[in-house]
Amino acid sequence: MGRYRRLFRLLPWTRGEIGREVDEEIRAHLEMRAADLERGGLSPAAARAEAERRFGDVAGARRALRRWGRVRLGRQRRRDRLASVRSDVILAFRRAVAAPVQTVTALATFALAIGLTTAGFTVVDRVLVRGLPFPESDRLVALETRDSVGTGIEYLSENIWLDWAERARSLESMALYSHTPERWSFAQDDGAYNIDGVRVTAGFHGVLGVPLLAGRGLREEDAVAGNVVVTEAFWRGPLGAAPLPVEVELANRRRQVVGVVPAGLEYPLGIEAFMAFEPRRRGDALAGEAYNWLNYRGVGRLAAGSSAEAASAELATIARGVRETRPRAFYLFGALTRPLHEQVVGDARSYLVLLMAAVSVLLLLACANLAGIGVARASVRGQELAIRVSLGAGRRRLVRQLLTEHLLLALVGGALGAALAVVATDAFADRLAGYVPRAEEIAVDTRVLAFAAAVSIAAGVLAGIVPALWASRAPLRQGLGPGRGTASGGRRTPAAPLVVVEVAMALVLLATGGLLLRSFATLLDRDLGYDVEGIVTARANLFGRYPDAQWPDFWRRAGEQLQATPGVALVGFANAAPTDIGGTGFILVEGRDQPGGAAYRVVSDGYFDALGIARLAGRTFAPEDRAGTARVTVINRTMAERYWPDGSALGRRVKAYSMEGGVPERSEWLTVVGIVETIRHDGHIADETSQMYVTMRQVPQSWFVGAMTTVVRGQPGVDAAALAPQVRQAFRALDPGLALEIGTLRDRLADLLSVRSTLVVLLAGFGILSLLLAALGLYGLLAFAVARSMHEMGIRAALGAPRTGLLALVLGRAFRVVAVGAAAGLLAAFWGTRLVHALLVDVDPHDPATFSLALSMLVVVTSAAAFLPAWRASRADPVEALKG
Amino acid sequence: MAERDALPLLKGTLDLLILKTLSWGPMHGYGIASWLEQRTGGDLGVEDSALYQALHRLESRDLVEGEWGVSENNRRARYYRLTTRGEAHLAAETRTWLRYTDRVTAVLALSERGG
Questions:
Q1: Is the pLDDT at A607 greater than 90, yes or no?
Q2: Which of A176, A210, A227, A525 is disulfide-compatible with A201, CB 3.0–4.6 A?
Q3: Average pLDDT of A852-875?
Q4: What ipTM was predicted for this assembly?
């Protein structure tokens, strides 16, 4: 005992092997003891029996030993696995360092792709996925009604809201708030400026569940004084965080600030002050017309145990019940509740989804690119891999090792990408602020970082799986056969299909980007109906500042002051100029019983000329149109065509009853005296709608001229931006303390387009980026293939092949790859671009011009990428080749 | 061989005995068993199955290491040897054991209380 010769045995790896070892050990023991006992004199059979007896519980021992064996086995496996992972990582690291150019390229590609994806996710997550920042925001619903054709109407009248508030049980609380922000002048010692505010019913913030930072929420008694709740930014800023309640002069009246809303919880977006108001039942004698005065939005919180469907049904029942006794309520054909979040996000959803899709395609492209590089690298490692296999590495092990290389690059690249995302997200958030809820909150946090890590791993696997699987398949044959260790004698790699995929995806992104670009260009090209250049707008509100009798005079004097200002050519006034929030109302056309609709504008005589709106027929307003004379209106082309398609609009009569009296019986007939060109009121995105104009001197109620926008056109050659301070001066001369909003029309139009333009730029950028990546992929494929077959090329040259023939050989290969890729890409793009239909303006999703352009760009760039390797092939030296 | 009434082993003692046995060189299981029987005169009741279980337990704790070998008379058996950790463990436990028994013996050997 003591000295022995080691027996080479592989460690037991299965339970069966463990069992056999245990049995063998016990058997050896029993034999040895039996042998000793035999030497001591026992018979073999007796010795055997005695040995077993002395052993004890053989079966029990066997079981126990097997258990210990399994424990050891588990530990061994874990140790092995850890060791192999460690060696994989070290090897991957060494390989990465050994090929710095490739490594940096791969890192950069990963970083860019993962960074963009992460940035996109950050925005989408905040805006779409996480919902509103209120407690239990899934119980918050927007209250809407339906019109006769079933369209959802987001706006409510006070009346229906009051009906619902009285009778609805499925909502535990509700609130009403004005649907567009109002501009209220906030007076300070050094002047006044305007802030955005909404009027809300008592308990508004209670419904939302906003915990107030200071003070209290609005109560019913606050409506009398018109007290307000303000946002934290406003309270800390102009109010200097004064203890509440604090008195302010807001909207030309002294009121109290009674509460503060914490930052990040302002709803609606961009509102700085919330004023209490009491909703009143309006115009009950008007047969339901008052139910059409949609000036508010409603929000409610579902009662415990109630669902959105139940609430919708209940509200609809009430609405329809009201309609039965008030046949002129056009918007009470139904009702519904919608998650508030949906209403808030609205349009932004489609943009964000598109962005995310584009970024994902880019990521896939990047992975395909890297997979191609991985395949190229793997194909020159045939010898190394073959040796590994012969040393016992299973296929799985090889795959794991190759994957590790890519994963390492992906994780490091991903970390860089996350840093990139932080920067990109800030830029995104800036652009989106005001259009998208919670834009200020869009920032990278742990959730996003976790996403980045997950994407990095996915990208690493995606990029690595193709080279790993391919390289691990039959390295022996390649590695140890003829031509081993060299790059020639290679077998077909999956690199070409990868490039095909890249080309296809690049085409999809190019086409999408191109469509959006074209759509945007079409949008910009649209005729707005007026001359944009050189116009300054200034909006002022005289409510509470002057008695209403003085308002017309004020505007007249403002007009005179401005006209006398150097640089000013024309001046006009309107209750709503282009890009302002303008009212639309019901009209009654003489001879028709169904009401129509038209935007209602109160303007000065000089308005049309100031804006450059062409007069098409009849006349515009003149001094003889004043109070007491026949009431007239000027309509636009769209309205004339819609209601009098036979062209007989002049001289006909209409009533703008919902704006001017509530019901037709209480409004006057207006005679059409002129037709002007249609303008797009809300900028390039707007449709052409009916508009009717009345003169300031003939408004039925004075409040129409309380807040007006002054339109100032500069002399030819005068820049609008330079004119603005002059306009401000002119108003200041009249009333130094009047709050004014001044800007150029061009700026305001650009604002309306800012989200779209950002998207277009981004997507076009993605398109270019993807094209470059695909070209790089093609170049890599060809360069590698040519390098591998230089020998063959040389032989061909030696055999008399002309240089151009060699060139054509390589270019032909490139062409095949690009052709297949382009075909696949076209199919994918045809299918995919239908999805962006909603975002396209006047452009067919299958617009042939855009697709042709994208295709040509693809061909040009890929040809350039193919040229260098082709050229190199054509320079193959036959002498070199013949030398062997 | 008739069995006398064997002394029951205290817990942990078997492990210590095995480690000590291996401290002079590797042995297979039967070797350890017969050597211990010799040295203790059969007084300690060490059942073979208990011994093997203790051996394998020690192996799972990395105090001994086992591997298959062929003995001089061409017999295949599993040999166990002490690891570095096992050596250290043996030294420490031996010190503890000796101190323990020393103190206990000191008390039990007293003939009178005052001693």
A1: yes
A2: A176
A3: 86
A4: 0.89
State whether residue A297 is helix, strand or coil: strand
> Quick one: pLDDT at residue A313?
92
Cβ atoms of A355 and A120 closer than 8 Å: yes
Q: Using an 8 Å Cβ cutoff, are A806 and A874 in contact?
A: yes
Distance, in Å, from the CA atom of A102 to the CA atom of A532, rounded to the nearest integer, reads: 53
Distance CA A684, CA A680 (A): 7
Q: Can you give the pLDDT at residue A575?
A: 92
Give A521-534 as a DSSP string: HHHHHS--SS--TT
Say how far apart CA A801 and CA A792 lie, in whole Å: 11
Contact A198, A177 (CB under 8 A): yes
Residue A337 in contact with residue A143, Cβ under 8 Å?
yes
Which chain B residues have a beta carbon less than 8 Å from that of A55? 47-49
Are A32 and B75 inside 8 Å of each other by CB? yes
Whether the per-residue pLDDT at A78 is higher than 50: the answer is yes
pTM here is 0.73
Predicted local confidence at residue A474, as pLDDT = 59
Give the per-residue pLDDT at A483.
46
What does the pLDDT look like over B73-98, one tens digit per residue?
788 899 999 999 999 999 999 999 99
A593 touches chain B (CB under 8 A): no
Q: Answer with the residue of higher pLDDT: A389 or B3.
A: A389
Cα separation of A618 and A596, whole Å? 22
Angle A754-788/A745-752 helices, nearest 10 degrees?
60
SS (H, E, C) B43-86: CECCCHHHHHHHHHHHHHCCCEEEEEEEECCCCEEEEEEECHHH
Contacts of A607 (CB under 8 A, 6+ apart): A572, A573, A574, A613, A693, A711
Contacts of A77 in chain B (CB under 8 A): none
Distance CA A464, CA A448 (A): 24
Residues in chain A within 8 Å Cβ distance of B29 = 25, 28-29
Both tokens of A684, joined, read: 């390039």
Rounded Cα–Cα distance for residues A379 and A373 (Å): 10
Question: Of A73, A87, A69, which is closest to residue A393 (Cα–Cα)?
Answer: A87
- A817-834 average pLDDT score: 88
Task: Please give the average per-residue pLDDT across A657-676, as a whole number.
Answer: 88
Please report, for residues A220, A227, A730, the alpha-carbon distance to residue A216 in angstroms, rounded to integers and kept in the order given.
12, 11, 42
Taking the C-alpha atoms of residue A617 and residue B12, their distance in angstroms, rounded to an integer, is 113
CB pairs under 8 A between A and B: 96
Task: Please judge whether B48 and A28 are an interchain contact, meaning their C-beta atoms are less than 8 angstroms apart.
Answer: no
Of B34, B52, B68, the CB nearest to A61: B52
The tens digit of pLDDT for each residue in A687-723 reads 899 999 999 999 888 888 888 999 999 999 888 889 9
Query: CB within 8 A of A753, min separation 6: which ones?
Result: A520, A523, A524, A683, A684, A685
Interface test with B, best of A68, A71, A72 (most B CBs within 10 A): A68
Range with lowest mean pLDDT among A278-282, A440-444, A556-560: A440-444
Which residues in chain B are closer than 8 Å to A36, comparing Cβ atoms? 34
**Long-range interactions of A411-414: CB distance < 8 A, separation 24+:** A411/A453, A411/A456, A411/A457, A411/A460, A412/A107, A412/A110, A413/A106, A413/A107, A413/A108, A413/A109, A413/A110, A413/A111, A413/A114, A413/A456, A414/A110, A414/A111, A414/A114, A414/A452, A414/A453, A414/A455, A414/A456, A414/A459
3-state SS, residue A184 = strand
What pLDDT score was predicted for residue A265?
81
- Whether A73 has its CB under 8 Å from any CB of chain B: the answer is no
Q: What is the pLDDT of residue A470?
A: 81
Distance CA A232, CA A364 (A): 44
Q: Binning pLDDT at 50, 70 and 90, where does residue A255 land?
A: very high
